[in-house]
C-alpha cells in the first residue's frame, strides 16, 4: 500500500505537482482564450457563467494552487500536492462506486503517449471487478479541425482505452496514438453506443475532451487536468464534471504508476 506521504513525495519528485513544466504564460493564454469562448480551449464545455480571465485565475488558484495574483505573469506554474491528493481520493471513490455495482465504463485519452498505461490499468481492474468496459465506435472515422486544417483519424481501443490514430498507419514507429483535446471522439463513442442499443456508460474516465464532452452530455466524468486546461475545472465548478485531479498530464508515462497503485488501493481494486 503506497502511503499518502510517499505519494506526496513522488508527486513533487516527478514534478506531477509542486513546480510543474507548464508555464504561467501558457496557462494565462488558455484562460484568455476560454474567457473569449474559443472552442479549442472550451473542449466540449458550454459554461453557464461569464468566466473572465480574473475569474479563471481565482478558480485555478482554488482548484490547483496556482498563484491567484493576476499580476504574476511569468515562470512555472505550481500545483499544490495536497489538492492533488484530495482529488485522487475523490477519484478513487468514484471508481469504487462504479465497481461495487459492476457498472459500465468508458475510458479514453487525448494523451496516449503519457497516460495510456494509467487508464489501461484502471480498465483492467474495473473489468476484473465485473464492470463492462465499452469499446463502442471502434474503427469509426473522426474528422477534427486543427490549426493545420481538417485532419482525419480513426477511433481505436488499446487495452480497453479509446484513442485516435491516423489512418493508413501514418503514425507508425511505436507511437500509441494522437494527442488531441477534442470532444468529438467521446461524442462519437457515445453516439455509437446509443445507436447500437447497448448500455451507456455510468462513468467516463479520461482527460481533455473526453471528460468535458461526456460531462456536458450528462454523463458522470472524471479525470486529470493540467493548469492550462481550465475547461475541466470550470466543468467541475458548474457540476458538469464530477472529479478533476490537478497534475501535470505530460510527464513520463512511468511516473503515473504510483498514482495507479494509490487509486486502485483506495478503491479496493488492487489486483
What descriptive keywords fit this protein?
271 residues; 5-stranded parallel sheet
Topology, element by element:
Elements: H1 4-13, E1 18-23, H2 24-35, H3 39-42, H4 53-63, E2 76-79, H5 81-100, E3 104-108, H6 112-128, E4 132-133, E5 141-146, E6 149-158, E7 161-165, H7 184-196, E8 203-206, H8 208-216, E9 221-225, H9 230-237, E10 243-246, H10 257-266
Parallel strand pairs: 3-4, 3-8, 8-9, 9-10
Antiparallel strand pairs: 1-2, 5-6, 6-7
Helix pairs in contact: 4-9, 5-10, 6-10, 7-8
Task: Provide structural commentary.
The chain starts with a helix and ends in a 5-residue tail after the last helix. The protein has helices at residues 4-13, 24-35, 39-42, 53-63, 81-100, 112-128, 184-196, 208-216, 230-237, 257-266, and strands at 18-23, 76-79, 104-108, 132-133, 141-146, 149-158, 161-165, 203-206, 221-225, 243-246. It is of the alpha/beta class. It is 42% helix and 19% strand. Strand 6 and strand 7 (161-165) form a beta hairpin. The longest helix is centred in the middle third of the chain and has 20 residues, at 81-100.
Summarize the structure.
The protein is an alpha/beta fold and 271 residues long. It has helices at residues 4-13, 24-35, 39-42, 53-63, 81-100, 112-128, 184-196, 208-216, 230-237, 257-266; strands at 18-23, 76-79, 104-108, 132-133, 141-146, 149-158, 161-165, 203-206, 221-225, 243-246.
